[in-house]
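Objective 1.3, modelling of assemblies. Example input:
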Amino acid sequence: MNALNVAEYMQTLGLQARQAAARMAAADAASRNRALRLLAGLLREQAQPLQADNARDLERAAAAGLAEPMIDRLRLTPKTIETVAQGCEQLAAMADIVGEVSGLRQQPSGIRVGQMRVPIGVFGMIFESRPNVTIEAASLSIKSGNACILRGGSEAIESNKALARLVQQALVQAGLPAEAVQLVQTTDREAVGQLIAMPQFVDVIIPRGGKGLIERISRDARVPVIKHLDGNCHTYVDDPCDIDMAVRVADNAKTQKYSPCNATEGLLVARGVAAEFLPRIGAVYAAKGVEMRCDAESAAVLAGVPAAKVQAASEQDWFEEYLAPVISVKVVADVVEAIAHINRYGSHHTDAILTRDHVHAQQFLREVDSASVMVNASTRFADGFEYGLGAEIGISTDKFHARGPVGIEGLTSLKWVVLGQGEVRS
Amino acid sequence: MNALNVAEYMQTLGLQARQAAARMAAADAASRNRALRLLAGLLREQAQPLQADNARDLERAAAAGLAEPMIDRLRLTPKTIETVAQGCEQLAAMADIVGEVSGLRQQPSGIRVGQMRVPIGVFGMIFESRPNVTIEAASLSIKSGNACILRGGSEAIESNKALARLVQQALVQAGLPAEAVQLVQTTDREAVGQLIAMPQFVDVIIPRGGKGLIERISRDARVPVIKHLDGNCHTYVDDPCDIDMAVRVADNAKTQKYSPCNATEGLLVARGVAAEFLPRIGAVYAAKGVEMRCDAESAAVLAGVPAAKVQAASEQDWFEEYLAPVISVKVVADVVEAIAHINRYGSHHTDAILTRDHVHAQQFLREVDSASVMVNASTRFADGFEYGLGAEIGISTDKFHARGPVGIEGLTSLKWVVLGQGEVRS
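Predicted structure (tokens):
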């Protein structure tokens, strides 16, 4: 396609999505849930042909010399197919939130006023490599009564096309419009530029991928964007604190997996427990090869830990999202200094306090300005599944609209409903 | 001030607002409510000096040849001062929503997950003429634990300065930072450009005023904007319907006041009741000098009404927000056509159905894609006070974040709180 054709093509997708959105918003919950269960069935039935289409992407990736972890993220195994199928069934089993009316109360004039939860309309999703995201996004879109336009990475185009065909088949079998879930069929980059600049057809954009991609999209989008750029998450070990628990949680928060955005990147330790806590967590990190970027005070305490990889932290380290076996470490006076450090250097994603002190816990919860704030838990829990949202379409570090892990509620808005008996304004 | 000085000045206001916002978010409800009650007291005590400052604006406006309605909107009377003072007291008496935790539920991992309502941070408000908006915005900001930067119209600068002094006095007396409410003291237009482009200091912009102003701000703002451009509201008279009620409500919705954004601009009438309803509402509108822009079918019915001002409607009429004694009138087949017309030509502000049919009412509520959807009530009720929000900072026709009349809830966001007992992710 040339640029003009891409623009026309995207306008067509947009118009079709807008029309499908109106039908999805009016559809009943039973049809939407039926589409999800049909989709689960089709995924299982078509697991082999899906893997054959996926193999073409994998071969192309191997030929292009993609790194093994990248190829791994592309792969549709029987296990990943079963997982997304189960995800669809779980969503189908969840209570419906579309049309839910809350807070309906009579006002002095006699009118009753409440709020009804309704779909946002059309969302555009831009993502890379993992083809299972296609099913996750499609199923959340169907459950929430929206329409969506999905733009996956070019490396997964064959897999995504095959998955999108199954989604549309399930929609049609359930009596819903196929255009409620559309995959952008061209890998032309111009398509992204078009998708993010059609406010008449697309209500919100959800980009998932590298920071560069998300920054570009946020800058150029002409509609709201649900996004997070960084996950510079902190774990603060307070005084007083259960040190065994703190070691276990600080270990998990950093080392359970290094790449997720909710992994802890900064460890803050109250002065009163530093001498007891730091050598113990230092030994754990040393055993796992985690490098510690330390302020002078923590470095002094950690100096005695055998095999510890201790480096002096620079100012930049406090801002860093390492996504690697590296962590910044700092001794602070108290919870007040910890909160100030987090609000200054953090990315407003997820931060935890480990404490026995109720007042400190309450202050931390109230004053840390992050999407998720935790007491005595691993930052790794910041996730739509773990929060009981059924699934997660993305994570937002913005404060406007949805914040933190975004599930089906984040794909809806609340409109006002007024029920009267002929009241007039005087 | 020159442009450079204005930029520096606005950056200073921004930094001060950001710092004040952190203190406001941490302040207790008692202090915030005390500030509101102190402000009410100061407004009453200082009513005379306020009117003296206001008189300087009024003189300048008269000398500049401003139209009488404009001068009227500028005027601070004992009554408007008492009204805003009472508004502050009403807000102080309302339940506090900052820090409210909802939906706290245990998840399978053992962690308990819920959401805490917290202030957005800093909002910037841009408005024209009516100086009482200064107090409304300041009081909503204080109640919701935010900081704000207010930019009023140059014609009201003396009044606004005097009001802002009282607000800051009340804040300080309550132990809160004066910078929690700052008025832009320069009338330089460059200040607006700066205010809407400081994402590091300002989280959201709320413009109130003419459509041109709001369009410009929305286009140039680098932060989210809470706004509505048009109020092309509809009243649909369904079949079956209580005709007496329909005449009363359709009259009120159009004629109770012509200028508000929630006044009805389009009247849709089901074919089955057109012959009975139209002559009656036509006579009411004729008596009040309301011009009717009609489709052929309604024009034919209205032809027999004495003194009726009937014109043929053009396609453009269906889009029009008249804000005047003019209304578009169209006969439709049924509720389905009414919904399609409203979703196509309306501005997603406020639309009402007048009906006895329960199924039609439910369908209208569900499918009309507007911020407020009403059954058997005047569209004029779309208002923060009437909805029980205490006050209204603005009205949004967007679907993202707050929708419809925006009160203190719209100035807050929900962050996730996680309460654990040392849980780790496996």
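The domain at 3-226+405-418 of chain A is CATH 3.40.605.10 (Aldehyde Dehydrogenase; Chain A, domain 1).
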